[in-house]
UniProtKB/TrEMBL annotation:
It catalyses: 8-oxo-dGTP + H2O = 8-oxo-dGMP + diphosphate + H(+); 8-oxo-GTP + H2O = 8-oxo-GMP + diphosphate + H(+). GO terms for molecular function: 8-oxo-7,8-dihydrodeoxyguanosine triphosphate pyrophosphatase activity; 8-oxo-7,8-dihydroguanosine triphosphate pyrophosphatase activity; 8-oxo-dGDP phosphatase activity; 8-oxo-GDP phosphatase activity; metal ion binding. This is 8-oxo-dGTP diphosphatase. InterPro entries: Aldolase_TIM, MutT-like, MutY_C, Nudix_hydrolase, NUDIX_hydrolase-like_dom_sf, NUDIX_hydrolase_CS, NUDIX_hydrolase_dom, ThiamineP_synth_sf. Its EC number is 3.6.1.55. NCBIfam families: PRK08999.1 (NF006530). Pfam families: NUDIX_4, TMP-TENI. Belongs to the Nudix hydrolase family. SUPFAM superfamilies: Nudix (SSF55811), Thiamin phosphate synthase (SSF51391). It comes from the Bacteria. The lineage of its organism: Bacteria, Pseudomonadati, Pseudomonadota, Betaproteobacteria, Rhodocyclales.
Length: 315
């Protein structure tokens, strides 16, 4: 059976404390009682962004003043093939005045969301649990003790996502460092992913694995870990990460870096072009720091990843 394809714009309204808004569908609607992100169908002649601004005005009585592109997900219901354009709604004017939902609720990342969740919106909840900054370790360059001290200070300042990338350490030293790093990250409620080494993930109980690009492209299924991401440098690699159902991708370099000398920088327009229209959150990487967060998110990035910039607060 051929299903009608419907384009829908959905808004992730973000409060200053990071909480996002969910609405419960009214009794007289399809999937009554289910929870969803506010939004609605894209009408002929509208862009998804225009449709979302109109829908939020009609549904919630607010006027959007700041909108960021985020994810594009597709879902096949019994009655339609829905293509959902998700935007982050960073700022708006007016008080919420709900006109269509049975209830509204603000949910902080990490809190249990109300159920049942509309099936097409469910995967977005995990993406919203993903922190916005990833720190990538460099203990082989600066020394294990110096990296652990920098990690501790960065965690105290709010870092919640760490990739351990230590090919320059011998296996025994890498495992000892990973165990120390994991203890610190978990003490602060964060996530630690190990680059490339699935065995190390399993031995120490890390939160997941990060795949180098060549490993990503050789994979035919998602590794069986709670969190899985990958490094990407092309649209083909990003699309393969999405096809495998990975939780995030890293894309860069946005600027020239010492880590990848001679590799052309994407710049923000190049990054935005490659990362657009994907169902997987994409981190911007390459010569970036926290001062670049707003530029990254305006370009459609979930956040930033950094090898040096993540430790600036500690240095």
């Amino acid at each position: 059976m051929t299903r009608k394809r419907v384009d829908v714009a959905a808004g992730v309204l973000l409060r200053a404390d990071g909480a996002y808004l969910l609405g419960q569908r009214a009794p007289d609607t399809v999937y009554a009682g289910y929870w969803e992100f506010p939004g609605g169908k894209v009408e002929p002649g509208e862009t998804p962004a225009q449709a979302l601004c109109r829908e939020l005005d009609e549904e919630l009585g607010i006027r959007v003043t700041r909108l960021r592109p985020w994810l594009l997900r597709e879902h096949r219901y019994e009655h339609a093939h829905v293509r959902l354009h998700f935007f982050e709604v960073a700022a708006w004017e007016g008080a919420l005045d709900d006109k269509v939902h049975s209830a509204l609720v603000w949910v902080r990342p990490g809190e249990v969301a109300p159920e049942p969740m509309l099936p097409a919106n469910g995967p977005i909840l995990k993406a919203l649990r993903l922190p916005r900054t990833m720190g990538i370790t460099r203990a082989a360059q600066v020394g294990v003790d110096a990296q652990l001290a920098a990690l501790e200070r960065a965690l105290a300042c709010g870092l919640q996502l760490v990739q351990l990338r230590e090919h320059g350490l011998d296996p025994a030293a890498r495992e000892a460092f990973a165990r120390e790093a994991l203890a610190r990250v978990h003490a602060h409620g964060g996530l630690l992913l190990i680059n490339a080494d699935a065995g190390l993930v399993q031995r120490i109980g890390a939160d997941g694995i990060h795949l180098p690009a060549h490993t990503l492209m050789a994979a035919r299924s998602r590794p069986e870990f709670g969190w899985v991401g990958a490094s990407c440098h092309s649209r083909a690699e990003l699309e393969h990460a999405a096809a495998l159902g990975l939780d995030y991708a890293l894309l860069g370099p946005v600027r020239p870096t010492a880590t990848h000398p001679g590799q052309p920088a994407l710049g923000w327009p190049g990054f935005a072009g490659l990362a657009a229209g994907l169902p997987v959150p994409v981190f911007a990487l390459g010569g970036l720091g926290e001062q670049d967060m707003e530029s990254a998110r305006e370009a459609g990035a979930h956040g930033i990843a950094a090898i040096r910039g993540a430790w600036a607060v500690a240095d």
